[in-house]
Specification:
Layout lengths: L33 E11 L10 E10 L6 E7 L4 E7 L3 E9 L6 E8 L3 E9 L28 H11 L3 H8 L11 H19 L3 H11 L8 H12 L3 H13 L6 H25 L3 H23 L6 H23 L2
Parallel strand pairs: 1-7
Antiparallel strand pairs: 1-4, 2-3, 2-5, 5-6
Helix pairs in contact: 1-2, 1-3, 2-3, 3-4, 3-5, 4-5, 5-6, 5-7, 6-7, 7-8, 7-9, 8-9
């Protein structure tokens, strides 16, 4: 049964601790210093409950304002919400963060919050490492023993995930190819399989293998409660292979599904839809045959990407996936402008 975009939260990262940087010279501050904070809570992506590891390692680096040159590392409890704060004179506090827990995949990302604001608590979902074959059995209180579930081999999935984290795209795609489909989409293996399939498709995109990526994302959106990311990726690949109207239709259907999402996800998805619309229009610019078409699609793509960037920068905090999309959108606008001016 085809499913609709669900309410899966987009991945983020937990950061805790309290660090007060040394004062910077008043002449170098761009505004009045205001205490700025991020509060986050970590959960297991599969269960929605606390992660199995009681402790985790948190690392961070203040990217903006660069004058702080602040960083930190701490071993902390994973059971309660935590906060990191700084007095900020610049418009935003931007943090590079990393979370490490023995039983979970390491996450690296960027978080941002506007000066003087306190964001959160933000729910953070970590994906468990599944390095061993899972096998359990259940014996009821009375009657015959229940059948033991079939063994599930996580080997290809784990190999693909390791290669993906190392940006070894070819190795990742080859490893993921060996994954077995789940019997139950909502089981622990089923949710891990969904995440791995999204990574598999993304690895193909990074190799410019859009046809194969399209096949994968068409499969993923048919899984139960796939979340929003597969639909965003599906639209991206549809536009990349020239099926622009289908891509825009996928984005429109995801937009209509926002009302069923959690409030914190709605704004993230809205921003990413705006970004992908601009990317779709850029694909039309790339295929334009006449000067008139190039100018029209180029101007439209620039307008859509700039509108996305303006709206994204007004978000507080700026989610990591949106932050990365802003950087990409700015590069795309510069590329389009260069190509129009140079006639190439």
């Amino acid at each position: 049964m085809a499913s609709r975009p669900g309410t899966a939260l987009l991945p983020a990262l937990l950061l805790i601790g309290c660090y007060t940087p040394p004062d910077s010279p008043p002449a170098l501050r761009s505004g009045t210093l205001e205490e700025t904070a991020l509060v986050l809570q970590v959960v297991d992506a599969g269960t929605g409950g606390p992660i199995s590891d009681a402790d985790m390692t948190v690392r961070y680096l203040v990217r903006e304002p660069i004058l702080f040159d602040a960083s930190g590392v701490a071993q902390v409890s994973s059971r309660e919400p935590y906060e990191i704060s700084h007095p900020v004179g610049d418009p935003n506090l931007v943090l590079e963060v990393r979370l490490e827990a023995d039983s979970y995949h390491r996450l690296d990302t960027v978080l941002s919050v506007g000066r003087g604001q306190s964001a959160g608590p933000l729910t953070v979902r970590l994906s468990r490492r599944l390095d061993q074959i899972v096998s359990t059995s259940t014996v009821p209180a009375s009657g015959p023993a229940a059948p033991e579930p079939a063994r599930v081999d996580y080997g290809p999935m784990n190999a693909g995930n390791r290669a993906f984290e190392q940006e070894a795209w070819l190795e990742a795609t080859e490893a993921y190819q060996g994954m077995a489909a789940p019997n139950d989409d909502m089981s622990d293996y089923g949710r891990a399989y969904l995440e791995a399939k999204v990574r598999q498709g993304t690895a193909h995109i990074n190799r410019s293998e859009y046809g194969r990526a399209l096949e994968i994302f068409e499969e993923v959106v048919e899984l139960e409660e796939p979340g929003s990311e597969p639909f965003l990726r599906l639209a991206q690949t549809q536009c990349a292979v020239g099926r622009v109207e289908e891509g825009r239709g996928t984005l429109a259907s995801l937009g209509r599904a926002r009302s069923r999402m959690l409030p914190e996800e709605q704004s993230n998805v809205s921003a990413m839809i705006a970004y992908q619309r601009g990317v779709c229009t850029q694909s039309e610019f790339d295929r334009a045959q006449t000067t008139r078409e190039r100018v029209r699609f180029g101007a439209q793509a620039i307008q859509e990407l700039n509108a996305f960037t303006e709206g994204a920068r007004a978000m507080s905090p700026v989610p990591p996936e949106v932050y990365n999309a802003v950087q990409d959108a700015e590069r795309r606008v510069a590329d389009i402008q260069r190509r129009i001016a140079g006639g190439s």
